[in-house]
Design goal:
heterodimer, A: mainly alpha, MetI-like fold, 13 helices, B: Rossmann fold, 2 domains, 4-stranded antiparallel β-sheet, about 35% helix, about 25% strand, globular, transport (chain B)
Chain lengths: ~280, ~240
């Protein structure tokens, strides 16, 4: 998105272009500043706490100790194994849930009958917190990978489905009319008009789902798992290994940020045609 | 390519918008349909395009009844309706591509139409990066690239400023002279209709009120005395 704008400006106003590119880069670097400050203050406070014991220092360790502990865990191999299996679970569950959601939404948008039968049922079962269903899934599917993946897919499904359906319904009818009068057939209307113009809604739904899917992942790993970040937390609680717990918590945050970043990149690539928002409304 | 409408009636919200329209458009003719806002001219265009169906009466193209949109009737919309996720060139190539022309050939064809409207250097821009007049030119090129037999234009210059609008009119006449498509052009602007049309059809109260043949040579001049007389004449018919 930024790229196209910059490219366009380049051809018209060379001088203002260089200024803008620089400003944007600086802003990007500044984004790390609050995060760095957060860790510095955390370190400072917990180091003081180790001397003055405002709270029990074992419960509230400094980031440096967490980092060292994380390195030890990594050397033992548990950490890599856990991050890997968590990543695989969330990836498979999320992709399955999102794909099903888009397919069902397209069918519902296409056939009134399917919408008539499915909408009330989805409205009824959609709001049930997925976590309430986990024990049921474990009884149904055992304690292997399947209940975890099903739970993640289930959580991902609803936000993506409702957002996609909403997007399909708000496709500008002029686009469809214009495509039809240019000779497009029905399947082309889907691939060339409805899906591209619904993409922003699908992405919005995916973003909502990503957060929910992470909760589903961690909780499912807390119940009947032998590895994974959620497992480390439960294990740490059982044996009072506070540092391990912090390592897992920080890693969950990092992993979520990683997925969110990948998402942003995909979105930027797919939706490069979109220009809007305050950023483009007013120049500052 | 002849377009014919016989006794076309259409209701909207329990109000009879069109009360029996009869129309005959000859090949290569440039017809303007003139009417005031809410007078059913856009409804008529949607009927001709096949987007909506008449309650009574029939619309035929070359003797075949119109039942759905088709590539033989290209449409230019007032809001241009360019696909924002495609670049200018991809927008114009859309018609040929969905009609089964191989991609490279379609893009080449699109480039020719882009040259026709003089926007080659914007081929890889997105519609949102263009001005209103440029967007509408792309809209016209896109409709032409679908190689329709008849071009339906729904107040295409209605949203443009006066200066751009006048440029667009002469541009359209230039394109029409070059390709000679049949055009049905909807407008509420009398001067625009007189500038463009071979024939003006005035729609009032849901029926064809009056028809005027315009025999002025092109390019027409807004300040020509004959031009002014025609406008006044149509204005009289239009108002009462």
């Amino acid at each position: 998105m930024e790229n196209t704008i910059i490219k366009q400006e380049k051809s018209y106003a060379v001088s203002s272009n260089t200024k803008k590119e620089k400003g944007w880069d600086l802003q990007k670097q500044l984004q790390a500043l609050p995060i760095i400050m957060f860790f510095i203050i955390w370190e400072g406070f917990t180091r003081l706490n180790m001397h003055f014991s405002f709270v029990n220092p074992v419960f509230f360790p400094p980031p440096s100790l967490i980092l060292i502990n994380g390195w030890e865990l990594y050397k033992s191999g548990i950490l890599f194994q856990s991050v890997l299996s968590s990543t695989i679970r969330i990836f498979i569950g999320f992709v399955l849930g999102a794909s099903f959601a888009v397919i069902i939404a397209l069918l519902m948008g296409r056939m009134k009958k399917i919408e008539f039968w499915f909408t009330p049922i989805f409205n009824m079962i959609g709001p049930i917190p997925a976590l309430a269903l986990l024990p049921l899934f474990i009884i149904w599917f055992g304690i292997g990978e399947i209940p975890k993946i099903v739970l993640i897919a289930w959580t991902t499904f609803f936000p993506v489905m409702t957002n996609t359906l909403d997007g399909i319904k708000s496709v500008n009818s002029s686009f469809i009319r214009s495509a039809l009068s240019l000779g497009a057939k029905e399947h082309q209307i889907y691939t060339k008009i409805i899906i591209p113009s619904t993409l922003p809604s699908i992405m919005a739904g995916c973003q909502i789902s990503l957060g929910l899917a992470f909760s589903a992942l961690i909780v499912s790993e807390m119940m009947g798992a032998k590895n994974g970040l959620g497992y480390i937390i439960v294990d740490a609680r059982n044996y009072m290994k506070m540092l391990n717990m912090y390592v897992a918590i920080v890693l969950i945050g990092l992993e979520y940020s990683f997925f969110a970043l990948v998402f942003k990149l995909i979105e930027k690539k797919l939706l490069s045609w979109r220009i809007g928002g305050f950023h483009h409304a007013v120049e500052k | 390519m002849t377009l014919m409408a016989e006794g076309v009636k259409k209701c909207y919200n329990n109000r009879l918008v069109l009360k029996g329209i009869n129309l005959l458009v000859e090949p290569h003719e440039f017809v303007c349909i003139l009417g005031n806002s809410g007078g059913g001219k856009s409804t008529l265009l949607n009927l001709l395009a096949g987007f909506i169906k008449p309650d009574e009466g029939v619309i035929k193209v070359n003797g075949v009844k119109v039942t759905q949109p088709s590539k033989e009737r290209g449409v230019v919309f007032q809001d241009h309706a360019l696909f924002p996720w495609y670049t200018v060139i991809e927008n114009i190539a859309f018609g040929p591509i969905v009609q089964g022309v191989p991609k490279q050939e379609a893009l080449k064809k699109a480039m020719n139409y882009l040259k026709l409207i003089g926007l080659q250097e914007y081929a890889y821009h997105y519609p949102m990066q263009l001005s209103g007049g440029m967007k509408q030119r792309v809209g016209i090129a896109r409709a032409l690239a679908g190689e329709p037999e008849i071009l339906l234009m729904d107040e295409p210059f209605g949203a443009l400023d006066l200066f751009t609008r006048e440029n667009m009119r002469s541009e359209l006449i230039r394109i029409w002279n070059e390709l000679k498509p049949t055009i049905i052009f909807i407008t509420h602007d009398i001067a625009e209709a007189v500038y463009l049309a071979d024939r003006i059809i005035v729609i009032r109260n849901g029926v064809v009120a009056v028809e005027n043949k315009i025999d002025l040579p092109r390019p027409r001049n807004y300040h020509d005395p004959e031009f002014r007389i025609l406008i006044e004449e149509i204005e009289k018919n239009f108002m009462n």
